[in-house]
Amino acid sequence: MRSPAVASRVGVLLGISFGLCFLTGLVSHYAQLPQQPVPFPASPAWGYRVTQGLHVISGTAAVPLLLVKLWTVYPRLFLRPPRRLRGLLVEVAERGSIAVLVASAVFLLASGLANSTAWYPWAFSFRTTHYALAWVAIGALVLHVAVKLPLIRQALRADVDDTALDRPTATEPGALSRRGLLRTTWLAAGVAVVATAGNSVGWLREVSVLAVRSSDGPQGLPVTKSARAAGVLETATSPAYRLTVEHAGERRTFGLEELQALPQVTETLPIACVEGWSENAEWTGVRLRTLLDLVGAPAGSAVVFESLQESGAFRTSALPGHFADDDRTLVALRVNGEVLSLDHGHPCRLIAPNRPGVRQTKWLSRVVAT
Ligand SMILES: Nc1nc2c(c(=O)[nH]1)N[C@H]1C(S)=C(S)[C@@H](COP(=O)(O)O)O[C@H]1N2
Ligand SMILES: [Mo]
């Protein structure tokens, strides 16, 4: 079973899932950059939902694939290195690049899995580190495939059970046939997909045992940070609550009733958490543009949102001008036909199309057009 015949076949699927994970990861990283040379588009509204769903699904599917792949190739680590200096140097370079590939791949999958369960047992910034090592892994992967290409080609052209490419030391048959091992591997990857896909695909929710964030929260929507955890229980329910909207010297404040008295619109937009879950909801509230007009902010103004939450990385977010001017971008007061619950951002929250969940700021206190 530990032959190039198996390794190359598992490798193809692993390569596809890493490639997909890499590309969708780049999208997610870019969507969260404060300065974007090419502005991230506001349409389609569900775009980020799809790319981030695929990111977490392909990453999870890569876990069993990587485990099987490592298991099929690890005896190669114990092969005797060549005696000649030139051969030895090539071997050291190759094993070195594989060490980098394995270490970065394991780091990416482990940190990604932990993140998808909202578990951050480390002090470094997840996004920066995950992003940097993604480039390391993809670079090492491209190098690995390039080095192995002749062998991969030969192995894929031959029958799975062909033993011509096997290690000379591989003499004993395995407990499973090669086809049996491959089928089990595809099954494991399929189970990993189904177990996480419910995070973003509604009808799979019941069978997706790893879709931890999709359990019904208040108003049919999961909650990442609760009002209690954000420390806003008092300020968000206080009768003294005011939303401040500012542009240049102009400054207006709105109580909850004043916000409710402004023209209300309803939009169906998803929340797509970077941790993988996503859900559509029907949001009702004031168009952001309506508020910006009231303080004379010109079209194209970028907007900074501040939360009642006093600390934490997600208490503020910046919204580019073309998102702020989009008719679907709301300061929402209601969700799915009910007044926004405290956990979903009462008194009001930002909801914009095609935007990572972490930037859909809840419990708004200040909206500043720049
Ligand atoms: N002020 C504030 N807003 C926030 C957050 C937060 O921690 N603080 N979490 C964000 C994240 S990570 C997500 S995915 C969405 C989730 O919104 P929900 O809890 O209403 O579903 O809210 C976002 N808004
Ligand atoms: Mo999130």
How would you characterize the overall build of this protein?
With 370 residues, this protein is of the alpha+beta class. The protein has two domains: 201 residues, Up-down Bundle (Fumarate Reductase Cytochrome B subunit), CATH 1.20.950; 143 residues, Alpha-Beta Complex (Sulfite Oxidase, Chain A, domain 2), CATH 3.90.420.10. The protein has ten helices and ten strands. α1 runs antiparallel to α4 and α2 crosses α3. The radius of gyration is 25 Å and the shape is elongated. The model has no long low-confidence stretch (mean pLDDT 94). The structure holds ligand MTE and molybdenum atom. The site of the ligand Nc1nc2c(c(=O)[nH]1)N[C@H]1C(S)=C(S)[C@@H](COP(=O)(O)O)O[C@H]1N2 has 21 residues, from loops.
Bound molecules: the ligand Nc1nc2c(c(=O)[nH]1)N[C@H]1C(S)=C(S)[C@@H](COP(=O)(O)O)O[C@H]1N2, molybdenum atom
Mean pLDDT across every amino acid position: 94
Number of helices: 10
Gap between N and C termini: 62 Å
The count of β-strands is 10
Determine the CATH topology of the largest domain: Fumarate Reductase Cytochrome B subunit
Could you describe the largest sheet, including whether it forms a barrel? 5 strands, mixed
From the coordinates shown, what is the CATH architecture of the largest domain? Up-down Bundle
Strand order of the biggest β-sheet: 2-1-10-5-6
**Structural class assignment:** alpha+beta
- The SSE order reads HHHHHHHEEHEEHEEHEEEE
Protein name: Molybdopterin-binding protein
InterPro entries: OxRdtase_Mopterin-bd_dom, OxRdtase_Mopterin-bd_sf
Domain Oxidoreductase molybdopterin-binding: 238-368
Pfam families: Oxidored_molyb
